[in-house]
Design brief:
The protein is an alpha+beta fold. The chain has helices at residues 2-16, 98-105, 112-138, 146-157, 216-223; strands spanning 21-34, 37-48, 54-57, 64-65, 76-81, 84-86, 159-162, 167-176, 181-184, 187-190, 197-205, 231-239. Helix content is 29%, strand content 33%. Residues 1-16 form the signal peptide.
C-alpha cells in the first residue's frame, strides 16, 4: 500500500510540475493619462509546452480580478502586498476593446467626445450582434434568443489555438483610477506604495461551464477534440507600482 501511494504521489507530482501551458508576465509599463488615471500595459506570454496542438477559450487582452472571476473568459489577476494575497476587486477592470478603454480615459463623461465615443461603441456592438444573428440563421440556427446568439458567437470567437511548442505574446491594457482604497462589501484594502506590491495572472480555462451558451453540435465538436483543454495555469508574480 505504501508503494502504491508513493508511486501515485510521484506520478501526480510529475504531472503537476509539467503543465501543458506556461504563463509568464514579461513586463509592466505605465503611461500617465491625466491627474485621475494611469494606464498600465501588462505584457505576458503563453507557451504551449507540449508537442501537440492545444485549443482553449480565452479573451487574452483584458483581465478581471480574482474576486469577480467566476465564468470569465479573461485572464484572472491576483494582488499581493508584502507576499500576502489580498482578494480585492480592483484596482484594475476589464476593457475588452480599444474603444472601451478610450471611453474610460475621458474624465468628463458628459462631454461631446465621451457622448460620441459611447454612441460609436453602441453602434459597433449592435452591428456585431446583428452580424452574429444573421450568420447563425444563415447556418440553420433555430433559436430566436438574440442575446444567447450574441454570446455564443463571442464564445466561439474566443477560441485560441496554439501549435506544438508555440509561444504567443499578448498585452493587457487597463487603467488605475489612482484610488488606493478598494472596498469589497465589508472588506477594505489599501494599496500602500511603501509595500512591495505584486500581480499574478491565472488562466482559468473552462469548457463545461459554458455549455448553456453553446449548441449541442458545438459541445460535441469540443468534447471530441482531444486538443481542447481546461485547467488553471498560473504565471510568475511581478512587482507593480502605484504612484500618484
Amino acid at each position: 500500500m505504501r508503494i502504491f501511494f508513493f508511486v501515485f504521489f510521484c506520478s501526480f507530482s510529475a504531472f503537476a510540475q509539467n503543465p501543458k501551458l506556461k504563463v509568464k508576465i514579461n513586463s509592466i509599463t505605465t503611461f500617465p493619462v491625466h491627474n485621475s488615471a494611469t494606464e498600465y500595459h501588462i505584457n505576458y506570454q503563453i507557451e504551449n509546452e507540449t508537442t501537440n496542438e492545444l485549443s482553449f477559450f480565452l479573451i487574452p487582452n483584458a483581465l478581471i480580478a480574482n474576486s469577480a472571476s467566476s465564468l470569465t473568459l479573461f485572464p484572472v489577476y491576483k494582488m499581493y502586498q508584502n507576499g500576502v494575497f489580498e482578494d480585492m476587486d480592483g484596482p484594475f477592470f476589464e476593457y475588452e476593446t480599444k474603444d472601451d478603454l478610450e471611453y474610460s480615459k475621458i474624465e468628463n463623461k458628459e462631454s461631446e467626445e465621451a457622448k460620441n465615443l459611447l454612441k460609436k461603441i453602441q453602434i459597433s456592438q449592435g452591428t456585431i450582434a446583428m452580424d452574429n444573428y444573421k450568420k447563425y440563421k444563415d447556418n440553420g440556427g433555430e433559436s430566436e434568443d438574440f442575446q444567447w446568439i450574441y454570446y455564443r458567437q463571442r464564445l466561439l470567437n474566443s477560441v485560441v489555438t496554439m501549435k506544438p511548442n508555440e509561444t504567443k505574446t499578448f498585452t493587457i491594457k487597463t487603467l488605475w483610477n489612482k484610488n488606493r482604497y478598494i472596498k469589497n462589501d465589508d472588506l477594505e484594502f489599501y494599496l500602500d506604495q511603501n509595500n512591495t506590491i505584486e500581480i499574478e495572472l491565472i488562466l482559468d480555462l473552462k469548457t463545461n461551464l459554458f455549455q448553456d451558451q453553446l449548441t449541442k453540435e458545438d459541445l460535441q465538436n469540443i468534447n471530441k477534440n482531444p486538443s481542447f483543454i481546461s485547467g488553471q495555469f498560473t504565471s510568475n508574480k511581478m512587482k507593480i507600482e502605484f504612484k500618484d
